[in-house]
Amino acid sequence: MDLLLLSNSTQHGQGYLAHALDTVTEFLPSGARLAFLPYALAHHDAYTERVRGALEGSGITVRGVHESGDPLVALADADAVFVGGGNSFRLLSALYRTGLRDALRTAVRAGLPYMGASAGTNMAAPTLRTTNDMPIVQPPSFETLGLVPFQINPHYLDPDPLSTHKGETREERLTEFLEENDVPVLGLREGSWLRVSGERATLGGERPARLFTRGAEPRELPAGSDASHLLTVGAAFDTPTRRTA
C-alpha cells in the first residue's frame, strides 16, 4: 500500500496544505486525477474547491466524488484518493452509506495511493476509538478502513503544565484507551505525518511523534524515524488490563 497520513491539513499562519505541499505533490502521481472525499464537513462543494485551489497549481486534477452521479465510479476513475479532515463520525457514516468504505479498502490494498488528513487519517486505522471528535452522528460501526494495524491520534497535544484546566489531557485519554485495548497508538503532532510505502513506514514533518503502548512509558519518535515495526504489530481490542482492588 501507498499511504500519506497527515495530522492536519492547515498549519497556523499558512494556507491549506501549504506546510506539506512538497510532500503531497511528491506522493501523488504526476498529473494525477485525485478523487476527493469531502464528507467530514457539511459543505461538500466549498470544501472541494478549497482542495482544488491548493493542488491544481501543481498539475493535480481534483474531483469531488459527490460531484458525479456515483461516488464509487468516481473513485474507480481516479489515480489517487484524498480523504479530508473534519468530523470523523460524520465521515465514517458517509463511507458506510455510500459503499465507499469497502470500495476504499479494496482499491487502496490493490495499490491506489491514499492520502488522509485528520479525520481522513483516522480512517486508516482499524477503529475510530482514538479520535478527538464529538460523535455528532452515529455510524453503523466504529470499524474504519484498517489500512494500518495500529491506532493514530492526529492533532496530538502535549499536556500544558501551566494550564488550570482540570479535564483529561490527551495523554490521559490515550492511557485509558490502552487500559481497555492492547493496540499501539501513534500520536501525530501538528505539522507531522506518516508515510507508508509497502512494508516501510517513515515519520515526516516538523515535529516528533509520540508512541503509546500498553505497559510502557510513551516514546518520542523524531521526524525521519523508521516506524516500519508498527506495520507488523498485533491489535487486541476489548482486552482490559487486569483490575486490582
UniProtKB/TrEMBL annotation:
- Please give the Pfam families that the UniProt record associates with this protein: Peptidase_S51 (PF03575)
Ordered alphabetically, the record's keywords are: Hydrolase, Protease, Serine protease
Keyword DNA-binding in annotation: no
**UniProt family annotation:** Belongs to the peptidase S51 family.
This one is known as Peptidase
Its source organism is: Streptomyces varsoviensis
